[in-house]
Amino acid sequence: MAFSSIKPQRSLVEEVCQRIASEIRDEIAGGDGWLPPERDLALKLGVSRPVIREATKRLELQGLLEVRHGVGTKVVDKLHKPLNGSLALLIPDDKERLRQLMQVRFMIEPENARLAAVHATTTQIRQLKAALKKLEEADAYDAAVDADMAFHRELAIASGNQIAALLLHSLSDLMQIGLTRGYSRVSTTNAVREHAAILTAIEKRDAAAAAKAMREHLSTAELDLALPKTKKAR
Asked: What is the pLDDT of residue 207?
């Protein structure tokens, strides 16, 4: 006898999660909508209220919904939050988290810049220019942090790779800590010049130059953090 493997079926809760997520993507894009009341949603989907409750709880943990007791369930864009919340537990030492963050940025961001030089639209280049202008005009380091993060976020989006953009967004809280540390020690002069070099390469559609400019920028950012050397294991 020849037996074929049985494909496991998704649970009802998983089906409802997929359906709600799909509706959010299609109709409530932008992250400022609200789900129908629990009773109405259960009737529309033909499932029980406990199933709806469990599904919304899962989607809340994933950062797609936010349950506001006594008010309703709001659609949010916090898909990055689960990773951000885990980093402090995984790596308790602040400086070690920043050191490992820089390693990850070297892995991801030069490729983001290379892809952006290939795929960036006119609108995305305009948004990168706006972020650079805000950095040029920043008169306090908190404003510089916001502008710097905006540039890297827009560049990740311009890469055309949604996973890369979400991954960078998932590191945003830690990036903010690192940039705050850096800008509390140095001015925006180097960052402005280096962001401009990255943007120029992207506008020229020079992928290799964009990646090289990003690596140089990250090297400067790493120096600005002034992290102590890692002790070598004996």
From this structure: 98
Residue 105 dihedral angles phi and psi, to the nearest 5°: -65, -40
pTM of the model: 0.69
Of 44, 39, 8, residue with least CA distance to 23: 44
Q: What is the largest CA-CA distance in the chain?
A: 76
Going from the C-alpha of 158 to that of each of 13, 112, 143, 163, 168, the distances in angstroms are 35, 8, 22, 12, 13
Give the C-alpha distances (Å, rounded to integers) separating 169 from 23, 35, 121, 199.
23, 24, 20, 20
Looking at residue 22, its pLDDT comes to 82
Mean pLDDT by 10 residues, the chain (234 residues): 52 87 66 82 91 88 80 76 66 88 95 98 97 94 92 96 87 88 91 98 98 97 84 48
Token output for 67:
């349950």
Helix ranges restricted to H, the chain: 12-27, 38-45, 49-61, 81-90, 94-119, 122-137, 141-158, 162-170, 172-183, 189-203, 207-225
Predicted local confidence at residue 233, as pLDDT: 44
Closest alpha carbon to 83 in 163, 160, 155: 163
The residues, any chain, with a CB within 8 Å of residue 186's CB and separated by 6 or more, are 224
Six-digit token pair at 181? 């540390």
